[in-house]
Predict the 3D structure of the following.
Amino acid sequence: MTSRFSGGVKPPAGKQAADVPTSSLPRPAIVILPLRQHIGAACYPLVRVGERVARGQPVGDSDAALAAPVHATVSGRVTAIEPWITPSGQTELAVLVETDPEDRWWEQLPEPLGWSMDPEALSPDEIRRRARLAGLVGMGGAGFPTAVKLMPRSGSPVPELVVLNGAECEPLLSADRRLMLEDPLRVVVGLKFLMQTTGAPRGVIAVEEANSDCAAALAPFLGHDPRLRVAVLPSRYPQGAEKMLVWAVARRKVPLGGLPLDVGVAVQNVATAAALATALAEGRPLTERIVTVAGEVASPGNWLVPIGSQTTDLIAAAGGIRHGATRVVMGGPMMGVAHPSARPVPVTKTIGGLILIRPQSPADAEPAPCIRCGRCVAVCPMGLVPAELARLAGAGRWDLAREHHVTACMECGSCAYVCPAQRPLVQLIRRAKAEAARQAQQQPTGRNGTGV
Amino acid sequence: MSRTETSPIVTTGPHLWGGPGTGRIMSDLLLALIPAVLGAVYFFGSDALAVVLVSTGTAAAVEWVTNRWLGRRSTLADGSALVTGLLLALNLPAGVPLWLPAVGAFFAIAIVKQAFGGLGYNLVNPALAARAFLLIGWPTQMTTWPAPPDAVSMATPLAVLTKPLALEATVGAAPGYLDLLVGRVGGSLGETSALLLLIGAAYLLYRRVIDWRIPVAIFGTVAILTWILGGRGGPFQGDALYHLLAGGLILGAFYMATDYVTAPITPRGRWIFGIGVGLVTVLIRLYGSFPEGVSFAILFMNLMTPLLDRLTVPRPFGGARE
């Protein structure tokens, strides 16, 4: 009993790496650890150039409420603390660590609680404290600090449901899929900890139909716990968007400008849940994640990589570029950001895939005039009129764009995917969103924004 | 404005494109009209072919020249000018002097389309505006309908049906349903065979080139209203099927009213647009002085399109009822 959201697109299903088991990336010579890999304040460095660090040792932290510490993901020596380009395209201060062969873990890690511990024996505060210590952030792409997301919200009721987002709807990505297939226990344990933290009496792991084998892999670990189930959703982009996911699983509409919590649902990515389980059971912070490398590479696959590994390391592990791909998309091909493929960019906590492409994406095409065909309207999962929003943005009519609900756009790119004129709809709308948000700040008119 | 936020440093998504492109859509439209064009040539001979060639040729030439003159990127390759030229031809009687389609195509492309900003910016359908212009400027040439060789009547079927008192004395009985379907009736090139137009329309619907809402709204409205109001003997005795098959309704509803540029972009707007086209068509057919009203109905609703788009902004997902 799941509900199909309206709109969306069905990019070709080809998940090149879907059935390639995860392998470990050869230890990189150097890792680059940007001091902001999350939404919120940047961390300040806790280490100095020349200092030896161990794996799991914090190298950056912040006193701000909205932040997450950053840890060394290998053992080695700090060689520099300098600005570095990050996946979003912005430059952040980063700690560079030259790897040593010892692969030592930090001695001061929190005490491991073991895999057999009862989640209900831990207080929500203790779980949140450890989530923050472990540097956990939403690993599905948003990067919202997990400890903050797990905080009870004044005015919001205790959620009835935790939904683990395993609907990896971006084409070509299979990192979450491999995690659910290869490590279902960690995902399920993470879910139980999340239910204990939020007080939600029920938990659902949501996967797409194309990944129904993940449901089978998870099932034995759910046991006969009546509180838990797996929901198999239609394979359709953007099924993994929070609002579409909550609709599909619980048939509830997150109000405009609101959060899933407003309708009693707490959403977390499956990789985040697994990282939380590791943080509690093993005491280990977030130092590695699964990354899919696909597109124009010799051997697409999935790698367990130390966070801070560079794009160039991963591309080499996948056998190198083929067909003259010149750019690497960090994240999924629909919502990711493309960098020149020769440029080393660190993989951060939120990056689940690297996709090598040839430069013929919509962003490269010379846009033709809008013929008002309405395809963008038909596919917009938020029920907007992208062509009109883009027109208003082009004309600088931010006020009208706001009246047309431009702030509700989540930039999924379905509109640009189908646009016959290949217009840069998302780019225009993003501009209008920024301007509309600035206007709203100047003259507050109530709630705004698109949620987390 | 192009490539916003696209710097040499990074480019933002989506990095995939599913198509189809504008050119592909226009070729689908041309493809869908081929049966009707072949039918016209079969029924009316080389006269029809000449009208088609002059109309499309002039449309393409004018598009090319005006683009160069205005310093715009050539849009000839997207095929939109050919579609306009072909649609205009299908709205003309065979056997007109060949300067008539040339003048019409010039008016459609140079004035209605390019002077208003080119592809995507015209207010009304160029082919229909040109037809209206020609009809007012040269009414005699525009209403001299040669009958197909084995046609049953010299009068166009709608003239017989809707203006009975004036015409019944001078012409024979109205053609039957089968004649309308197959095309053994008088009319414009594209108004004769409903069947050939329906084949193309089915293709367009299958390819999802056109939105089914608009034709469904038009046919529904015309059927209901002509059934209620169109009978000679009193209410609820009208011949709805006849009204659906006759005249330019099928050509207009599937190929002209669905023109993206001049129809609303929102689903609700398209419903209202279609109902409006149906309503105005019936009013003109039953109570106006022209026998046929489809083109004027579409032109009228074209002008309502910006208003409909404004009034039918959809409620976003999770938005409150206003």
Notes: Chain A has 13 helices and 17 strands. The two ends of chain A are 26 Å apart (CA to CA). Chain A touches chain B through 69 residues (CB under 8 Å). Residues 445-452 of chain A have pLDDT under 50 and may be disordered.
